[in-house]
Specification:
Elements: H1 2-16, H2 19-29, E1 36-37, H3 39-48, H4 55-65, E2 73-74, H5 75-97, E3 99-100, E4 103-104
Antiparallel strand pairs: 1-2, 3-4
C-alpha cells in the first residue's frame, strides 16, 4: 500500500532533518504556499519523490499528521509529527544499541 511508503518517507525525512530544514521540507510539500498541506499536495509531492499515492492514501497521511484536526497539516502539526518521529527513532536506536539511561545495559 502506497500510504505506508509515503508515510514512511515523511517519517524518514523529518527524522533526519535539522530544525531549519523541517520548515524547508514543509514548504516543498506545501505547493500552494498557503502555510497548510492538503491531501492533493501530498499526492503531487509523492510523485516528485518517485512514488504514486492515491487521494485516499494521501488523506490518511493527512489525518495521521493533522494534530489539531482542522483538515490540513500546518507547520505546528508538521513539527509535532517530526518531533515524535525523532523521539521514536532515538528510542529504537538506543534499544538496538543496548543503551539505557545509565549507559550500556548488562555491562
Amino acid at each position: 500500500m502506497r500510504y505506508f511508503v509515503v508515510f514512511g518517507l515523511l517519517r524518514v525525512l523529518t527524522r533526519n532533518a535539522i530544525p531549519g530544514n523541517l520548515q524547508l521540507l514543509f514548504m516543498l510539500v506545501d505547493r500552494s504556499d498557503d502555510g497548510f498541506i492538503q491531501a492533493g499536495e501530498i499526492v503531487a509531492w509523492s510523485q516528485t519523490e518517485g512514488e504514486y499515492v492515491s487521494a485516499e492514501d494521501a488523506q490518511r497521511v493527512l489525518e495521521a499528521v493533522d494534530g489539531d484536526r482542522d483538515g490540513s497539516i500546518g507547520l505546528d502539526d508538521w513539527l509535532v509529527f517530526a518531533t515524535a518521529c525523532k523521539e521514536e527513532w532515538l528510542h529504537e536506536t538506543t534499544a538496538v544499541a543496548g543503551l539505557t539511561d545509565e549507559g550500556f545495559g548488562d555491562q
